[in-house]
Amino acid sequence: MISLSLALCISAFGSLCLGMPRHFEQVFKRKPHPWQQRTLRLLGWGLLGLAIVPAIHALGPSVGLALWASALTIGALLQGLLLTYRPGLVVPLSLLAPLLALPLLAT
Amino acid sequence: MLMSYRFFTDLSATARYRLVILSRSLLAIGGGYLFAALSTASLALALPLPRPQAVLAATQLSFALYCAVIIWAFAAASARRAWLVTAGLCAVPAIHLLFKGALS
Amino acid sequence: MKQLGFRQTNAWLHTWTGLLLGWLLYAVFLTGTLSFFHQEISFWMKPELHGSVADGSSAERAIERLQQLAPDAAQWSISLPTERNPALDVQWFAQGERVGRGGGQRLTLNAATGEPLEVRETRGGGFLYRFHFELYGMPRVTARWIVAIATMVMLVAIVSGVVTHKKIFKDFFTFRPRKGQRSWLDAHNATAVLALPFHFMITYSGLLLFMYMLMPWGVSSAYQGDMQAYFSEAGNRRGAPERGAERSAGVPVAAELTAIAPLLAQAQQQWPRGAASIQVSNPNTQRAQIELREHGGDSLIERGRGQQMRFDGVTGAPLAMPATPPTSVTNAVYNVFSSLHLIRFAGPPLRWLFFISGLLGTAMIATGLVLWVVKRLPERRKLGRTPFGHRLVEVLNVGTVAGLPLAIAAYFWANRLLPAGLAQRSDWEIRSFLIIWLLCLLHPLLRSHKRAWQEQLVAGAVLFAGLPLFSLALPHSGLPASLASGNWLLASMDLTLLASAALLAWAAYKLGCHQPAATRSPQRPPRKALASAEEVSA
């Protein structure tokens, strides 16, 4: 559950940074359409909100929110580093992260 | 503000700059703390909460107030103005405390 | 500074408050970050405990041992093995002794056998924990005031920094490496902004933990300064009398103590995290009572305090617990803030996330300090010499930013190398830390700036890398053994030491590649007002 929350944060920040034209260009070498930009940002905020759910489910409201808040930091940090050093990995990681977290849920 | 205007204008630009910094720092540290302390004492009596909680809330708030005054002391358009405004701000809780007799 | 706008005065304030107490704040942040794991560090620093493996009957072994050692004590306390400390700690108080934190007799037991363990004398992670708010070697109150003032300065630096950084959201993901001053600024901004909620929380809650010392005036006005009255009315535990030591008159009647296992099984059903401690008052008498405490609670509003269960010590029948009053909103705010800071409640994932945020905060301060120097290089080139102030900042930067980790590594080495029988052994560990740190502060005086950085970073890397290697020689402490047995408590410590070594080595390597470029660094026209303000003040 904790890993799922973290994974959703990673995807959310991937989506949010691609929603910024400067970083979209870094990854795709072209400018985003306005509708792409809007969709990506909405998706990002939605995922950020969604990431609260597993955290609270696993740890209760107060510890869950604390975990979520610090998972935000990790998600943003990771995407920031990827954008700087490996922009090509932003999209794959954002898509894969929740999928990778799912098997961990079973354990 | 404490020095005469004449004295102040006679100083070199560097010295004046340093004096202003000194004055504002004194205001930020001392004046800011005074304001935070007076507000805490006053709010502890004034907040419409049970007594222990009013104390706790006022004390918790005090550091935000202190921080705000410190930033204001350096951001105000002139040092004189910063001193005057802070004095005015301090007066409010001080008068409240005087009425309550808590400063005795 | 009349001519400066709001943002520029904040930039000025941020620069100078940050510089003034930056080194102290760096030390507080780094040791504070390590304190998130102070129990784990303490465990690592006591290799004698590493063979202790907890199992289902550790509690029974502790009781057996106490029956032998102190059958007629007034009270027994047993700290059960946890994921943060797999050894058993027992403590007992003789009849008539005051039951308090410092008193009684203590013993550490091997959780697997119940045998007492001869543990080397060390302050462990507790030293780093104490250091981060009480420093060392000065009166406790003075030190707390110094740290509290630094914390207040940190709050001002955070707020003014946020005001200064105008493109806070636009630059959210931005880091531009190999661009000189620009990169340092980016790194400073990124480490600050990414963990901003953490930085603010940890700073403000740090102040709240000191609040009655810093701001006693609310209690002064509402309670005429009577702290005792305030705490007892607030229902705080500090005002409440110590319980468990009360002894009714009369000769105690001997009675056999009930078995602990069924009681623990009952507790286990209600508490998924299990019990953390057992307290037995008046063991082996008819008045015996057994109290179990839950291992960490769910809610920060209750400060993550676990629940309790009380049993009759002879029959094993459950006894009623006094009801806890509900928590008010203002108390809740305080409780959430303070328990987030103290993080007693948290499992490993949250602890690691906080640890990373804390490291980001440490990096934020370090990059800020370096940025101050880098930003003034053009000015220095223009001047043709290094002003004394700049040199002083450089020396303190190396001696703190690189020197403190080195000193911490030295502390760990002293823990490994000092003989177990040495008098004042734990003091000598701390002295090693202080001596090495002092040397690190002096060393940059004798070397060029770049050399000093490189040498201290390399030395730190070597010391950190050596620690896990040294542990290989100890019976239960080696990294391969702890990895094979899934002992993540030890393995994570060793891996973190290796990671620290790698980080320092990488920094030294990057520094070695760096060519000081007089022409390459992009010279943006300095903002006029700010530049003139700094020229005057420098």
Write the layout of secondary structure elements.
The complex is a heterotrimer of chains A (107), B (104) and C (538).
Chain A: H1 2-18, H2 21-28, H3 34-50, H4 52-59, H5 61-85, H6 90-106
Helix pairs in contact in A: 1-3, 1-5, 1-6, 4-5
Chain B: H1 5-10, H2 13-46, H3 51-75, H4 79-100
Chain C: H1 6-35, H2 38-44, H3 58-69, E1 75-79, E2 88-93, E3 105-109, H4 125-134, H5 140-164, H6 181-194, H7 196-209, H8 211-214, H9 217-223, H10 227-234, H11 260-270, E4 275-281, E5 289-294, E6 308-312, E7 318-319, H12 329-342, H13 348-375, H14 377-383, H15 388-417, H16 425-446, H17 449-471, H18 479-484, H19 488-513, H20 528-537
Antiparallel strand pairs in C: 1-2, 1-4, 2-3, 4-5, 5-6, 6-7
Short description:
The complex is a heterotrimer of chains A (107), B (104) and C (538). In chain B, 84% of the residues lie in helices and 0% in strands.
Q: Kindly report the average pLDDT value of chain A.
A: 90
Strand order of the largest sheet of chain C: 3-2-1-4-5-6-7
Shape label of chain A? elongated
End-to-end span of chain C in angstroms?
14 Å
Total number of β-strand segments of chain C? Answer: 7
Which protein chains make the most extensive interface, counting residues with beta carbons within 8 Å of the other chain's beta carbons?
B-C, 41 and 40 residues
Helical run tally of chain A? 6
Question: What does the main sheet of chain C amount to?
Answer: 7 strands, antiparallel
User: What structural class do the secondary elements of chain A suggest?
Assistant: mainly alpha
Total count of helical runs of at least 4 residues of chain C: 20
Our Rg estimate of chain C from Cα atoms comes to 27 Å
Helix/strand structural class of chain C: alpha+beta
Helix content of chain C: 55-70%
Strand content of chain C: 5-15%
Mean of all residue-level pLDDT scores of chain C: 85
Order of helices and strands of chain C: HHHEEEHHHHHHHHEEEEHHHHHHHHH
Detailed description of the structure:
The complex is a heterotrimer of chains A (107), B (104) and C (538). Chain A has 107 residues and is mainly alpha-helical. Chain A has one domain. Helix content of chain A is 86%, strand content 0%. Chain A contains 6 helices and no strands. In chain A, helix 1 crosses helix 5, helix 1 (2-18) runs antiparallel to helix 6 and helix 4 crosses helix 5 (61-85). With 104 residues, chain B is an all-alpha fold. Chain B has one domain (5-100). Chain B has helices at 5-10, 13-46, 51-75, 79-100. The radius of gyration of chain B is 17 Å and the shape is elongated. Chain B starts with a helix and ends with a helix. The relative contact order of chain B is 0.15. The model of chain B has no long low-confidence stretch (mean pLDDT 87). Chain C is of the alpha+beta class and 538 residues long. Chain C folds into 2 domains: 6-47 and 125-194 and 343-532, no CATH class; 57-116 and 249-319, no CATH class. Chain C is 57% helix and 7% strand. Chain C has helices at 6-35, 38-44, 58-69, 125-134, 140-164, 181-194, 196-209, 211-214, 217-223, 227-234, 260-270, 329-342, 348-375, 377-383, 388-417, 425-446, 449-471, 479-484, 488-513, 528-537, and strands spanning 75-79, 88-93, 105-109, 275-281, 289-294, 308-312, 318-319. In chain C, strand 1 and strand 2 (88-93) form a beta hairpin. The radius of gyration of chain C is 27 Å and the shape is globular. The model of chain C is unreliable at 237-247 and 518-538 (pLDDT under 50). Chains in contact: A-C, B-C.
